[in-house]
Amino acid sequence: MKIFGYGSLTVKIDHRDMLLREQLARIQSAEETNADYEATIQQFRELVTTLQNDLDQLRHQEVTKESEKHNLSSQSQAMMSLNMQLQSTVMKANAKAVDLELRKLDAAQANDRLTYVQPYLPDSFFKTENDPISCLLLFKRLAFKSELIIKQLDQNHPISEKIMDTVDENLVSVCEVKSFGRYTYIHGQDFLA
């Protein structure tokens, strides 16, 4: 077993503290980016609602005014195209939100790893204790990702609204995925407790 001097430990601790500060700065930056995305998504949602209302009005006018049918049709097409573009943008923003959550997980795990490793800086620690810590972090990651999948499914497929309609295969699949995600999350939390 190799024994390190006080100066060597101080240098390593200072280096780990620097890494932690860098991770915290990245988290801060990611949170600011996320706030910008959320504001943009909110603007797009309001615009989509306005455009959808305008589109409904145009469709009503099309039925009542046959002579303006051609003009209204071209306007409807333009609005539908814009609506599709906005929906695509919202989907991309959701994907970025998921990516941000995964980055937060990576930063939290780096912090956890530093907390676990710091008291055991000798080389022998990395040979004997690194695998159990990695296993513990794996279960944390599984629980976190399961919870993230459940949140995305709840947001994109609200079951409570669809339960009164006829149940289709897609809804059954969503329920099965959510059930498995909750199972994984609960057992991951049990393991960590």
For the sheet with most strands, the description reads:
none
pLDDT < 50 stretches: none
Average pLDDT figure: 78
Question: What is the terminal-to-terminal distance?
Answer: 32 Å
Task: Report the β-strand fraction as a percent range.
Answer: under 5%
Instruction: Please give the number of β-strands.
Output: 0
> Which overall shape is indicated by the principal axes computed on the Cα atoms?
elongated
> Helical content, roughly?
over 70%
Sheet/helix structural class: mainly alpha
Number of helices: 6
Q: Supply Rg.
A: 26 Å
- The H/E string reads HHHHHH
Description of the structure:
The protein has 193 residues and is an all-alpha fold. It is built from six helices and no strands. The chain has helices spanning 6-64, 69-117, 123-128, 130-156, 159-162, 169-192. The mean pLDDT is 78.
Kindly summarize this structure in a few lines.
With 193 residues, this protein is mostly helical. The chain has helices at residues 6-64, 69-117, 123-128, 130-156, 159-162, 169-192. The longest helix has 59 residues, at 6-64.
Topology record:
Elements: H1 6-64, H2 69-117, H3 123-128, H4 130-156, H5 159-162, H6 169-192
Relevant terms:
single chain, about 190 residues, mainly alpha, about 0% strand
